[in-house]
Amino acid sequence: MSLSPLRRDRTDDEPPGPPELPGLGSTVAFLRDPLAFTTRCAREYGPVTSYTVGGRTFYQIDDPADIEDVLVRRNELFAKGELFQEMLNRVVGDGLLTSEGAFWRRQRHLVQPTFTPERLAAYGEVMTGAAEATAARWSDGETRDVHADMSELTLKIVASALFGVEIEDQTDVVGDALDVVMARSEGVMLDLLPEWSPTPGNRRYNRAVAALDA
């Protein structure tokens, strides 16, 4: 069955956006390929666009100056929002990524020393060492799953640089748990059921979070 896309009514003050299906908005197009959809919005409708996914209206910003305005110059005027916090709070807690206002400023002040030139140079050494160790396991002529190798390398670097721990024997467990968490985060905008409802997806998500906490 073919549905003819119709643009939802937009006010004069609302950013432009793609044609949308009645009752569905851009949900189908977004789910089909999120990256292609958001890229097309930026290319065809400008640096600020709007669209509806899962019954929620989203505003997409792609101009670097506008992004700096939101995140740095006038960040006090923009809230992260309940959806963003729902996606991350269970995993990272009430910290820098999810907090707002004065609490966020205190958190940012606490982590600022972590990003001095000296500390960043140390992170570079961690990254280089992990990359060299990964490359040393490769042999000429063999077939490798590069995605799996790079995912494992990323996990090792993050664990070592940010938490000071080695996860050599736990990369599969952590990687699988993160895959579940990321899938849950991507789908939360369409999920009309609360997180505590015993759906298969929620049960997988809760097990994954428990594995990461362990």
UniProtKB/TrEMBL annotation:
Superkingdom of origin organism: Archaea
The transmembrane segments are none
Instruction: Map out region (Disordered) in residue numbers.
Output: 1-25
Gene3D superfamilies, from UniProt? Cytochrome P450
Task: Quote the biased-composition stretches of kind Basic and acidic residues, using this chain's numbering.
Answer: 1-13
**Any Pfam family:** p450
| Name of the featured protein | Cytochrome P450
Name the source organism: Halobium palmae
User: What taxonomic lineage is listed for the species of origin?
Assistant: Archaea, Methanobacteriati, Methanobacteriota, Stenosarchaea group, Halobacteria
